[in-house]
């Protein structure tokens, strides 16, 4: 046999064995692709979301997997994980890779708006359902994609809820009417939606607040001194920012060092994270955050989730990140079972109709709207001295009073 | 804006320039003598931050002292890196692709080693100084930024003295001016390069320790500072210590004041724009331009 024939034979043998393996994998398990940042700028929240997904997968597999009618048996869930390094281009290519090469049945990925937007173009191309538990900008869900789902309520609602909460403090006489707001948001669709949410509420409720500064900053900044000087000269009473974790910590540190003081401070969906507490100590006290989840929610499933998470990772969940990812995996499992198939289109149809009862989120039911994005109310939390965090809004879920204005 | 606001901005710009100078000086020293654009500088900054943190966490050592101790530790580390990797690079009067690739690769190795040892956690050094500030009328001056500024000024002065007054400094300057002539008159280029790389790394480690007092950090720490360091040394003329001070001042003032007249989201683009303008109009940097003007007069 000639050497070239031997080479062709070797290549063919390898290819056949590879296809054989993937076919075997495809038959014996449900492959779920997970593309999250566990290095780079978004490493920490990305890791928490990965942990939430993996906890759900473990619990599903401990019960024998997901029953798939067309196979007439339970199939275990097999996770294929990729770290996108907080890089949008890498995030998109890894989402594509997990859909095309790894033959994922479905994909969960995209922590943060920028990375979620990058990944969101792939699902319709490959007809593979994709759920993001960490990107909530409305721009992702406006494009008419059929295979794109989001487990977070829109950022627009986050802005509106924040303004609504502030309005309630005016109604209670804790804040005066006509206070001035400085808005400083990240230069992404996330920030744009947040501003729109605030401004929409202010337009609908004239006289409550006026926006005196509306500025955007780039992600991953190291120096906000010039921007904070603008905030200072705006003479605002309320400082509202929309920032990711690292920017929140850096900006709040420089805010405190600059000696700024406002009646209310908020960094959008950031506030109670332990990293911020470690970095700034009491410097994060009284910061308000509008969140998708809190371990203070009064449902029994919350305590079970918290104890399971603690048992798995030796620490409590930090803010909301793990909870929405956990529910994203659970609703996916429910949809696969309802579809009775591992076919992407059938799972997509099942996801569109799915309702995850006993969900961790406020309202306890996770379902997707016609655009693919979930829509449930936000909670407003406030950091309090001694590493305490209370839900302060809405009133029926509150675990403590809002301390407004900030002492 | 009132006069106080302008004064506040000037002080903030000066403090920012101190931070920028501290982080860029090590890179300048290495480029000046060896013509190596040290992309691993970000990795050295990151390691310097963790060095100060570990001393603070394990031995409750003040981070300023940690940063000072980073100087000898990173000097030795830099010489080791030179002996292991850098000395094998081909000698050249200008930056080579191989040196860029080597240092970029080494940065990635350092970064991944960081992830292996410290994970992807964000670390911070919280001391009573972290959030304190000195009050000057209505102006708050962050204590930590003042310390970093002072450290940067002292570093630049010490380096200038080393450059001008020591045998080693004269060797470095002769290699910067004309490496061939320097060798002819007996300058040991290999030894000078090794010491220079050690010195540049020592200042990077020192800066990392100082920056750890200002920012949270993880193994990716240093990336945002890399471009600014590069802009500063290009602005300053690539191979002079006084140039670093000028470059840091220009970048800090332009960044801080530009935010007052344009959207803050353009701030990162300012460094790029400055880089392009200087490379086109002043290839020898602002320091070079000033030197030429002085010669003419």
Structural summary, described in words:
Chain A has 407 residues and is of the alpha/beta class. Chain A has 2 domains: 3-153 and 298-367, Rossmann fold; 156-291 and 379-397, Response regulator (Rossmann fold, 3-Layer(aba) Sandwich). In chain A, 44% of the residues lie in helices and 19% in strands. Chain A has helices spanning 3-28, 43-62, 88-100, 113-119, 122-126, 138-141, 155-171, 189-204, 225-233, 245-257, 274-280, 300-313, 321-339, 344-353, and strands at 30-36, 66-68, 73-75, 77-83, 106-109, 130-132, 148-150, 179-186, 209-217, 238-242, 264-266, 288-291, 355-357, 365-367, 379-384, 388-393. In chain A, helix 10 links the parallel strand 10 (238-242) and strand 11 (264-266). The longest helix of chain A has 26 residues, at 3-28. The termini of chain A are far apart. Helix content of chain B is 74%, strand content 3%. Chain B has helices spanning 3-34, 41-59, 63-84, 97-118, 143-165, 167-177, 179-184, 189-211, 223-236, 241-261, 267-281, 285-296; strands at residues 133-136, 139-142. In chain B, helix 1 packs antiparallel against helix 10. The A-B interface holds A 38-41, 43-44, 47, 86, 184, 187, 215-218, 220-227, 229-230, 232-233, 245-246, 249-250, 253-254, 256-259, 275, 278-281, 283 and B 1, 5, 8-9, 12, 15-16, 19, 115, 120-122, 124, 126, 130-133, 135, 140, 142, 144-145, 214-216, 218-220, 224-225, 255-260, 263-265, 267-268.
Task: Looking at this protein, list some descriptive labels.
heterodimer, A: 407 residues, alpha/beta, Rossmann fold, five-stranded parallel sheet, four-stranded parallel sheet, 16 strands, 19% strand, globular, B: 297 residues, mainly alpha, two-stranded antiparallel ribbon, 2 strands, 3% strand
């Amino acid at each position: 046999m000639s050497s070239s024939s031997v080479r062709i034979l070797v290549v063919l043998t390898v290819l056949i064995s590879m296809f054989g393996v993937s076919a075997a994998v495809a038959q014996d398990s449900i492959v779920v692709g997970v593309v999250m940042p566990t290095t780079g700028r978004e490493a920490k929240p990305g890791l928490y979301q990965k942990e939430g997904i993996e906890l759900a997968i473990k619990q599903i597999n401990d019960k024998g997997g997901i029953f798939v009618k067309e196979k007439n048996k339970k199939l275990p869930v097999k996770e294929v994980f990729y770290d996108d390094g907080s890089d949008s281009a890498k995030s998109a290519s890894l989402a594509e890779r997990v859909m095309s090469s790894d033959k994922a049945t479905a994909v969960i990925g995209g922590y943060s708006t920028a990375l979620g937007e990058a990944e969101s173009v792939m699902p319709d191309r490959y007809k593979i359902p994709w759920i993001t538990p960490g990107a909530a900008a409305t721009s992702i869900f406006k494009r008419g994609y059929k295979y794109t789902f989001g487990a977070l309520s829109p950022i627009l609602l986050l802005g509106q809820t924040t303004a609504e909460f502030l309005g309630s403090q005016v109604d209670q006489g804790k804040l005066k009417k006509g206070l001035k707001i400085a808005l400083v948001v990240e230069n992404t669709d996330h920030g744009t939606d947040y501003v729109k949410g605030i401004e929409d509420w202010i337009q609908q409720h004239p006289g409550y607040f006026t926006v005196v500064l509306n500025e955007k900053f780039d992600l991953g900044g190291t120096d906000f001194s010039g921007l904070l000087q603008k905030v200072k000269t705006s003479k605002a009473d309320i400082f509202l920012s929309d920032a990711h974790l690292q920017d929140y910590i850096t900006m709040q540190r420089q805010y405190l060092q600059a000696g700024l003081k406002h009646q209310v401070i908020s960094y959008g969906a950031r506030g109670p994270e332990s990293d911020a507490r470690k970095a700034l100590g009491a410097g994060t006290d009284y910061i308000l955050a509008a969140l998708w989840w809190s371990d203070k929610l009064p449902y029994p499933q919350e305590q079970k989730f918290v104890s399971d998470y603690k048992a798995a990772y030796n620490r409590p969940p930090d803010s909301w990140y793990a909870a929405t990812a956990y529910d994203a995996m659970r609703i996916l499992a429910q949809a696969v079972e309802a579809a009775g198939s591992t076919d992407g289109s059938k799972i997509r149809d099942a996801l569109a109709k799915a309702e995850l009862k006993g969900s961790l989120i406020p309202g306890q039911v996770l379902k997707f709207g016609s655009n693919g994005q979930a829509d449930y109310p936000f909670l407003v939390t406030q950091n309090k001295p001694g590493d305490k965090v209370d839900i302060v809004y809405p009133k029926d879920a509150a675990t403590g009073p809002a301390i407004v204005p900030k002492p | 804006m009132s006069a106080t606001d302008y004064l506040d901005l000037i002080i903030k710009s000066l403090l920012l320039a101190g931070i920028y100078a501290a982080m860029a000086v090590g890179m300048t020293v290495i480029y000046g003598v060896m013509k190596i654009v040290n992309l691993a500088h970000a990795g050295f900054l990151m390691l310097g931050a963790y060095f100060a943190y570990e001393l603070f966490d394990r031995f409750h050592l003040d981070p300023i002292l940690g940063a000072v101790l980073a100087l000898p530790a990173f000097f030795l580390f830099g010489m080791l890196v030179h002996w292991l990797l850098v000395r094998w690079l081909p000698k050249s009067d200008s930056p080579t692709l191989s040196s860029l690739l080597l240092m970029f690769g080494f940065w990635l190795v350092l970064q991944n080693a960081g992830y292996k040892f410290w994970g992807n956690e964000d670390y911070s050094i919280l001391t009573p100084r972290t959030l304190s500030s000195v009050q000057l009328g209505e102006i708050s001056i962050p204590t930590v930024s003042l310390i970093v500024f002072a450290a940067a000024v002292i570093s630049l002065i010490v380096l200038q003295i080393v450059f001008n007054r020591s045998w080693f400094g004269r060797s470095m300057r002769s290699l910067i001016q004309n490496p061939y002539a320097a060798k002819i008159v007996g300058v040991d280029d290999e030894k000078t390069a090794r010491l220079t790389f050690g010195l540049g790394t020592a200042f990077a480690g020192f800066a990392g320790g100082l920056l750890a007092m200002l920012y949270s950090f993880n193994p990716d720490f240093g990336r945002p500072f890399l471009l600014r360091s590069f802009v500063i040394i290009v602005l300053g003329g690539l191979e002079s210590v006084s140039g670093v001070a000028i470059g840091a001042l220009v970048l800090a003032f332009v960044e801080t004041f530009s935010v007052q007249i344009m959207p803050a989201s353009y701030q990162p683009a300012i460094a790029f724009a400055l880089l392009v303008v200087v490379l086109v109009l002043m290839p020898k940097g602002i320091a070079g331009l000033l030197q030429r003007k002085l010669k003419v007069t």
